[in-house]
Each structure stands twice: as C-alpha cells, then as structure tokens.
Amino acid sequence: QVQLVESGGGSVQAGGSLRLSCAASGHFVSPYCMGWFRQAPGKEREGVAAIDVIGRTRYADSVKGRFTISKDNAKNTVYLQMNSLKPEDTAMYSCAEDQVCLAVHLVGSVYEYWGQGTQVTVSS
C-alpha cells in the first residue's frame, strides 16, 4: 500500500525557511514523479513544485527562486526547501505521487497518491 507522510511544517516569520519532507513507505519513489501542492483556506489547490525520474523539476511562478524540490532515492524521501517565506505561502502542503510520470507537471488531478499534509504558517 502506498503511503506518503509529510513532516517539517510549522510557524515561521516572513523571510524565514522551512524544509518539508515526504517519506514514502511500502514502495520506492525513484521510478515516479513526485509533487508538492498547497491549499490555503478558501482557495483552490495549487501545484508548487514537481520532480521527475531523472531529476527534472518544475515550479509554480510564485515560488521560483525561493523553493527547491529534491528527491533522495536511498531514503525514499522527497524534500521541499522553502526559503524567503512570505505570508502568502501559508497553506497546508501535501506531497503526491504520479506513477505514470509522462512528464514533470503540476496538474494535481493526474497524481494518484497523496499524503495527509503538513501546515505551514508564515507571519508578517
């Protein structure tokens, strides 16, 4: 059974940093595309960052230059390093897995498996 467990969320002041982790259990993440998504109260889910099998990445314009997605295949873990955080980054962040992985993308509906999420709160 595919399980994704996020951690690393918390509260931070604007300009600060957090690193989110997404640990996969029961399988290997190396053959799949992985993505990070976020959803703030009253807003639609937004794709933040994604990484494919060979390490190609894609980012939302709102986080380019501030966020970095990476994957440690040996640990079956995907990371999201978030720097220069802004209050508008406040949201529930979830990782997701696309086992078809035709391309690196931020289309949430294509991802088959999802974690429960970890809350990120950025205060001004």
Taken as a percent bin, the fraction of beta residues is over 45%
First-last Cα distance: 40 Å
Give, in order, the helices and strands. Answer: EEEEEEEEEEE
Helix content: under 10%
Mean of pLDDT:
95
- Given as residue ranges, the uncertain stretches (5+ residues, pLDDT < 50) are none
What is the β-strand count?
A: 11
Cα radius of gyration in angstroms: 13 Å
Structural class: mainly beta
Instruction: Tell me the overall shape.
Output: globular
Helix count, DSSP H or I runs of 4 or more residues? 0
- Largest sheet: number of strands, sense, barrel closure: 7 strands, mixed
Please tell me about this protein's structure.
- This protein has 124 residues and is mainly β.
- It contains no helices and 11 strands.
- The strands form 2 sheets. Strands 2, 4, 5, 6, 9, 10 and 11 form a 7-stranded mixed sheet that branches. The chain has a 4-stranded antiparallel sheet with strand order 1-3-8-7, with no helix packed on it.
- A hairpin with a 4-residue loop joins strand 7 (67-72) and strand 8.
- It is globular, with a radius of gyration of 13 Å.
Put the structure in a nutshell.
By secondary structure, the protein is mainly beta. The chain contains no helices and 11 strands.
Please describe the structure with a list of short key phrases separated by commas or semicolons.
124 residues; mainly beta; seven-stranded mixed sheet; four-stranded antiparallel sheet; 0% helix
